[in-house]
Design brief:
- α4 crosses α6.
- This protein is mainly alpha-helical.
- It starts with a helix and ends with a helix.
- A two-stranded parallel ribbon has the order 1-2.
Length: 191
């Protein structure tokens, strides 16, 4: 046990020395950016989100129309007017089955389409953020742009979960002047 602690201490000291040496040899400052916050604050995100909401509403409206047709058929079948063996009842039961299957397929299609569109949008906006950071780095002399993930206290206060949340942070501390999230958002809006 003592040997593994010694190894961890040596590894930590080596990593700290490497980082210290890197930061001293860097030509420009190291900055941090919360990429998610930059994307969510961008004009492009607002436009794409509005388009995605409109698409979801339109698709859901089509699904609601089909759901209303299913409800009408169910009401006709439950009215008691049709006998169990009547051809009209059998036709309505077949129609109900077809429309119910179509409704389930439509719900899956909606979910897949929205997820696919969302992934495409996020990929495009991430590329836009990368371009913004690249052009700003060239202009301002940033040597390294690190991702900043704000720490959020987990709902469960289980020590293992809290420890994991702390270790999942990409940057443990950065001076406020090093956070360039709003600058990156502004550049994204210009591109």
């Amino acid at each position: 046990m003592k040997q593994s602690r010694t190894m961890m201490l040596m590894l930590g000291c080596s990593l700290a020395a490497l980082l210290l040496g890197f930061s001293r040899s860097a030509e420009g400052p190291v900055v941090v950016v919360d990429v998610v916050a930059a994307i969510e604050a961008s004009d492009a995100w607002s436009q794409e989100e509005a388009r995605l909401v409109e698409l979801a509403q339109r698709m859901q409206s089509e699904a609601e129309t089909l759901k209303d047709e299913i409800t009408t058929i169910q009401n006709d079948l439950q009215s008691g007017i049709l006998t169990p063996d009547s051809p009209e009842r059998m036709r309505l039961e077949d129609q109900l089955l077809q429309k119910a299957n179509a409704f389930r397929a439509m719900q899956r299609t909606i979910e897949l389409r929205i997820n696919s569109e969302n992934a495409r949008i996020l990929e495009q906006l991430h590329d836009l953020a990368q371009k913004a950071m690249s052009s700003l780095s060239a202009e301002r002399g940033w040597t390294v742009v690190l991702p900043r993930t704000p720490f959020k206290v987990p709902e469960s206060l289980d020590p293992n979960i809290v420890r994991s949340a702390i270790l999942d942070q990409s940057v443990l501390h950065a001076e406020p002047v090093a956070d360039v999230t709003t600058i990156v958002t502004s550049r994204m809006n210009e591109l």
